[in-house]
Amino acid sequence: NHFFRPINYEAKKSPENGTPYWSVRMIDTIEKKANLMMKFVSLTFLISTTFSQSSHKLTKTNLYLEETNKITSDGKVSFSLIGDWGGDQTTGDLTQLNLNISESLDKTAPILDTDFLLLLGDNFYDTGVENLESDRFDQNFQGMFHPGLENLNDMPMWTVAGNHDYKGNVSAQILYTDYDPTGRWRYPNFWYKLPTYSTSAFSLDIIVIDTELMCFKFSIDEIEDLGIDSIEAQWKFFYQQLDWFENALASSTADYIVVAGHKQILSTADHHLTEELMEWVLPLLKKYGVQLYV
What we know:
alpha/beta; six-stranded mixed sheet; 9 helices
């Protein structure tokens, strides 16, 4: 079954008292095949209202992290997102479902004036990638976003890991930022902030967190590569992200703040809630007035 139904978000201000609110017209594609589900949401920020950085040695990664501001001239910032897109859940093979999703993204990009995509984890089923030389980058990522999709050929795709990626080598996915021949794969660090987007009407910050590390889901590769082979070291690494996250929220001067991650905080779906995010992340979202978590 393939369902495709446009919905989007508009940020508005009440004419009565100036209170900000969201007008919801989401773009939601839910595709199901066997046990695989993908969700595709496009979020378009249109109207203004009142509603650092971890370092890395990679050349392109540093370039992306040092981009501090993006100016848009059309009065909006538009992005689409997908999660759980990493191929067949058992074999990891690219599926027709993947191609249907990428085709939908390609067709809607000129309609929505999409600026970039968010790839929110479980990028490579079932066990992630082994290393930078993995053929999964070509088979799944380049295969899904193939050259025939003209509207996506130059589309930045900001990425974060999911739980299945942590069965493999997440550091290799970060390293791929420097090796993607198309320059679209952007995964500068385990957690990071996109460049601030500014229009003549409003500004937008998007902060990407690693929800797996928030839940102490370390892979063997990360334990070895990061030297976090003890409980004390893992708690230290946990607080490194948490402190960075709160600082990013506190220092943001944007009109809108969106936080993105793989795991849900609270959901009506089978996974229901993530206790660690309820305890550590949700209070910060409320404290700093984050408008949207995706």
